[in-house]
C-alpha cells in the first residue's frame, strides 16, 4: 500500500523533522519521498509498505504533527481542515482498492479514537456519497468547518462532532494512484491552454479519469495544460498527450515538452512505450525489473 | 546471473515442454520467460538466479533438447549450429562481466564433457578474438560447420572436433543484456527487409550496437527486420524503430507492428516513453516499482 499523508507544516524545520522521523524509522514502511512547501505551508510524504507498518508510522507522525502544530495560527495557500490534513491510502501492485478502503476506514477509526481528532472518510473510503469529493469535505476549510461540524451534513464519520482544539479535523481516504502529467505549449496564450484543458478533461466530456486546467508559466514564457490522470488504463498517457497535441495543433500551437511530476507507476509509462513502438503482445512481465520485484528473494 | 538459452525447436509442443520443465523446477533458478517461434523453429528461455542453480537447470534442459531434437531434420528461418544453439550468460545487477565469463567457460567445459557436444566460446567468454562474433562462430550454420569443424580455424574450444550426430554444436558465451526487438513490415518483400536491416545495422555503418537481419515470416504473410540492440543507451529503441519506419517508408512500405522478444530492462522502455511523450527531466527514480526494487526489504 502507498500512503501520502499531508501535514499542515511547511516552514518550521524542527516540526517537519519531528513528523518525518517516525516515517523514516518504522520497520516495514519505506519513506520514498517528502516535500515541504513554505507557500502552501504544507508537508507531503510518500510512504510505501504493508498496511500494518504504514499505518503505525503515519499514526506516530500524526501524533508528532498534532503536538507541533496549532491550527489557530496556521496560514497557507493550500486548503486545509487540520494539522493532519489528509491521509489517502493508495493500492499498489498486489492490493485491491477494496482492501485499501478497509485499511483507510480502520485507520480513520483508530486515528480518531487515539488522537481525539474527528475524521471524515473521502473518495473510495467514503460512507456518504457526497463525501467522495475531497473538495466537498474540505469546503470552507477549517474555519467554516468549525461552525458547521455540529450540523447533520458535516458530522464526522469517526469521533465527536467537535474539532480538536489545535489540530482541527482530518480527511482519511482511499484513492487510485494519481499521475501528475503536464504538457507545456510553445505559446503564451493562456486562453488556448484553458480551452485545451476543457476539451480533454472528464468533467466536460473529455477523457475518462482526466482532470486538467490551463496554467500560465509566465516566467518561462509558456502556457501549460496541467493534468492529473487518475485512470491511466482508461486514459493512457499516450492518448492524453496526443489529445493535447491535436487540440494544440488545431490552434496552430506546438507542444514544447511535457513533465511527469512526482512518482508514476511503471505500467503507465510502459504502455506509452508499447503504444508508440507499436509493440504487439507486449506484457509488463517482459520487464526484467518488474519480474525481479516479484521473486521471493531478490537475486 | 541471467541465462538465455536458445534451443532449435519452436514447433513440437512435447519437445518444447520437455525442455522447459527442468528450467521451471530448479530451486534457486527462476524461469522468467520462454517463447517458441514456429517460423524461426526456435525456443528462447530466460532464466535468472545464482550461477550454480542456473547452470544446473540449463544442463538438464539441454539434455532434454538433445534427446528430442534431430538437427538433420531441422528447418527454420533463424541461423543455428545445434539443438542447443546458443547459451549466453548475462550479468545482472550485482554480478560483474568477468564473473560471468568464468561461469560461461565453466559451463561450456562441463556441457561439452557431459553431453558430448562440441562447444564454441563467444563474445566476452571467447578465448580466440575472432570468436567474439557469434556470426563468425555460426558462419554457414550447421551445414557448413559439418564440413569445416576439422579445420584449424573452426576447432571447438571444448570437446572433440566433430559434431554431435543429432545435436550439432553449441555456442556458449557471456555478453551484455541484449534486447530482441523485431519490426514487422506490411509487405512480403524480403529484399526490402534485408536492405532495411543493412541500412540500420552497425556492421554496415548504421546504428551503434544494432544487429539486424531481414527475415521472411511466410506463415504470417509478412517480412520482418529482426533486430538485436546491445547498447540501448547509444541506440534507443525509439531511434531504432524510427529508423526502420523511415527506411520502410522510403520503399513505400508501412510498419505493421513490432515485437519485443523475451525480457527487456525497464530503462530501455522508459526511455522510449520519455522520448515520445517529450518528457523533460524524466528520471527512472520517479518510477515507483524501480524504487521498490531498491528497498532493503520488499514491501
Task: Explain the overall architecture.
- The structure is a homodimer of 299-residue chains.
- The first copy, chain A, has 299 residues and is α+β, with helices and mostly antiparallel strands.
- Helix content of chain A is 35%, strand content 23%.
- Chain A contains nine helices and eleven strands.
- In chain A, strands 1, 2, 3, 4, 5, 6 and 7 form a seven-stranded mixed sheet that branches.
- In chain A, strand 9 and strand 10 form a beta hairpin.
- In chain A, helix 1 packs antiparallel against helix 2.
- Chain A is globular and about 55 Å long.
- The two termini of chain A are 23 Å apart.
- Chains A and B meet through strand 3, helix 7, strand 11, helix 8 and helix 9 of A and strand 3, helix 7, strand 11, helix 8 and helix 9 of B.
The helix/strand order of chain A is EEHEEHEHEHHEEHEEHEHH
Gross morphology of chain A is globular
Oligomer: homodimer
Largest sheet of chain A: 7 strands, mixed
Q: Which value, in Å, is the CA radius of gyration of chain A? A: 20 Å
Most extensive protein-chain contact, per-chain counts: A-B, 52 and 52 residues
How many β-strand runs of chain A? 11
Unreliably modeled segments of chain A: none
Q: Please, what is the average pLDDT of chain A?
A: 93
Structural class of chain A: alpha+beta
Helix content of chain A: 25-40%
Per DSSP, the total helix count of chain A is: 9
| Separation of the first and last Cα atoms of chain A | 23 Å
% residues in beta strands of chain A: 15-25%
